Amino acid sequence: MHRDQRVAQLVDPLAFVVAHESHAPRERVGATARDARADERVEHLPFRHAEPCHDRHRERREHAAFVAAACAPRDLAPGALLGFVDEHNDVGWQKYNGLRFTGTRRSANGLTFSGNYTFSHCVGTATPGSFPQIASGYTNPDNPDMDKGHCDQDRTHLANITAGYQTPELRNKAWRILASNWRVTGIYSARSGQWINITTGQDNALNGQLQQRPNKLSDDFYGPKTLNNYLNRAAFGVPAPGTFGDLEYRAVEGPAFWQVDAAFSRLVDLGSARSVELRIEAFNLTNHFNWGNPTTTATSGVATLTSSQFGRITTNGGYQRILQFGVKYSF
Assuming Cys at both sites, which of 16, 38, 119, 322 could form a disulfide with 31, CB separation 3.0 to 4.6 Å? Predict the structure, then answer.
């Protein structure tokens, strides 16, 4: 794998990042016995021939002749009963461009602001999630760029804002005890949605590869964007047998995400090197419901047309409000 990253520092709070990755490992070919390379590899396999001699072959009378021929002891030519063979090599690639803005402001009254925003775009061929990926390579093994689209981790917009404030030492004794020297910190995080891959759930191309995509029938990919109807099913069509769909890889963007976290803390000096720290933390302070993706499973990034849940959002993209309380005594 080869990565090339260049950062151009334009001005202090502004940076432009370009990154390119090539020769990424990826499953490329679902080869059949007619492939000469498969014939060469099968000579080194630890078996002489495939044996479809399971009892299920004997359950149906019409398969009797097939079983007798397939299970008869004999030597077969290399690759004679070889089906699809998966080949892994470094034909994958990705390219990332990003523009990042940052800013910080501190004031004499104890108030501090800082923030950053990134506008980015990542494009490349499909990437594997883990090894091995049996029959989950490129849709068209002869043309890996057919699976060119948004990277799995691509987010067009990313923003974070942090604010902090420390209350001053108050003169009134009662207020000084209750409200002085509290540190308050808040973090606002937001990002655009994950790009989702729409699949047919079928081997339409008849090449043994999974994750095949449908045809695009309309540019209106989205329904009314409700929990029960986020995607427009009528915008996608099943390709004819033996053909590939023309929908781009990861063509649909999922719901955006935002959240506010906060922390309140105070350090109380008890003298003689003793102190007590009081701390309250809130995650998702507003208890905002971030929608999950309208995908077949929560983390797959794939929406399958044959699923009864297609276009529905059934998961939470974040978590409910969480409160934590803590006391630390130091001596």
Answer: 38
With helix as H, strand as E and coil as C, how does the chain read?
CEEEEEEEEEECCEEEEEEEEEEEEEEEEEECCCCHHHHHHHCCCCCCCCCCCCHHHCCCHHHHHHHHHHHCCCCCCCCCCCCCEEEEEEEEEEEEEEEEEEEEEECCCCEEEEEEEEEEEEEEECCCCCCCCCCCCCCCCCCHHHHEEECCCCCCEEEEEEEEEECCCCCCHHHHHHHCCEEEEEEEEEECCCEEEEECCCCCCCCCCCCCCCEECCCCCECCCCCCCCECHHHEECCCCCCCCCCCECCEECCCEEEEEEEEEEEEEEECCEEEEEEEEEECCCCCCCECCCCCCCCCCEEECCCCCCCCCCCECCCCCEEEEEEEEEC
CB 280 within 8 A of CB 325: yes
pTM above 0.85, yes or no: no
Could you read off the pLDDT of 152-207 as tens digits, one per residue?
Answer: 889 999 999 999 998 888 888 888 778 888 899 999 999 999 999 999 999 999 88
Pair of tokens at residue 257:
């995400």
Q: Which amino acid is at 167?
A: T
Report d(CA 103, CA 86) in Å as an integer: 49
Query: Is the Cβ–Cβ distance between 205 and 215 less than 8 Å?
Result: no
What tokens were used for 312?
A: 């529905």
- CA 77, CA 59: separation in Å to the nearest integer? 28
Please give the Cα distance from 140 to 249 (Å, whole number): 12
95, 122 contact by CB (below 8 A): yes
Count the Cβ atoms, other than its own, within 10 Å of residue 194: 22
